Inverse folding.
């Protein structure tokens, strides 16, 4: 009887070990896939929106730097802060691996455009990335595909990499118009745009800040459709929309997804670090 118990225990121990090996091998396979896609840069960008004072921004960075000391060197990490924090952040990030991003850019270098900011101003500060066409700009501030196109051109003119946001509303998705809407956005937004100096973020509007996350396989499908519309198939395409530490592994396991544009979960150092350190 004792020998029987030992045999049973040994069986289940081996079963557990084999299951662990399968999981680890699966994870290694995902990593290998990412290695094979090295030509497409992985970009994790935090979009702070209208959050954090200068003091709060500095406090975040001091904690965050230590959290990403061992993050894979091939992963680009970007913080897109409010305009008021850009200068102090630029000074504090100098010499670090973290890239500085802005949340908007005007198409003129100067002029009577109250509340706007130009590429000249952003490059002087040391901004490397800028978000263009975010759904909140489209929804609340009258952004159109025509103005998005102008902002993209301005960013590229000044050597800033634009992160172009595209995505559908809940109503459009329910009507089965997701593909039509996104393809139309791309056709208008990307006129005369250099696709070798571009990042795209697929942000289903219905998933932004709602807690509802687009299923990873569906995000992967839509991003695959986006890639099909591009002349340059190696453009990095992020997913954005309620990205969190507890779903980033599944999101980044998808072969078409090259990073994340992170909103609320980017406001805490440990949270964004976990996202940057996926797998």
């Amino acid at each position: 009887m004792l020998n029987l118990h030992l045999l049973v225990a040994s069986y289940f121990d081996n079963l557990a070990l084999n299951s662990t090996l399968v999981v680890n091998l699966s994870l290694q396979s995902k990593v290998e896939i990412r290695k094979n896609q090295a030509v497409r840069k992985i970009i994790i960008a935090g979009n702070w929106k209208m959050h954090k004072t200068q003091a709060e921004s500095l406090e975040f960075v001091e904690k965050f730097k230590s959290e990403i000391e061992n993050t894979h060197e091939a992963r680009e990490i970007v913080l897109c802060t409010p305009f008021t924090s850009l200068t102090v952040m630029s000074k504090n990030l100098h010499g670090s691996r973290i890239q500085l991003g802005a949340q908007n850019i005007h198409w003129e270098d100067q002029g009577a455009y109250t509340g706007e900011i130009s590429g000249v101003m952003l490059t002087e500060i040391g901004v490397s990335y800028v978000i263009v066409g975010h759904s909140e700009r489209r929804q609340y501030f009258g952004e159109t595909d025509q103005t998005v196109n102008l902002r993209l051109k301005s960013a590229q003119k000044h050597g800033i990499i634009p992160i172009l946001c595209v995505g559908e509303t809940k109503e459009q998705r329910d009507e089965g118009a997701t593909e039509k809407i996104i393809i139309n956005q791309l056709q208008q937004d990307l006129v005369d745009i250099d696709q070798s100096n571009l990042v795209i973020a697929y942000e289903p509007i219905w998933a932004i800040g709602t807690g509802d996350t687009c299923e990873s396989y569906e995000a992967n499908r839509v991003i695959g459709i986006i890639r099909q519309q591009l002349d340059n198939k190696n453009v990095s395409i992020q997913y954005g929309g309620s990205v969190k530490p507890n779903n980033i592994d599944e999101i980044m396991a998808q072969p078409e997804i090259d990073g994340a544009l992170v909103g609320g979960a980017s406001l805490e150092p440990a949270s964004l670090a976990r996202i940057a350190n996926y797998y």
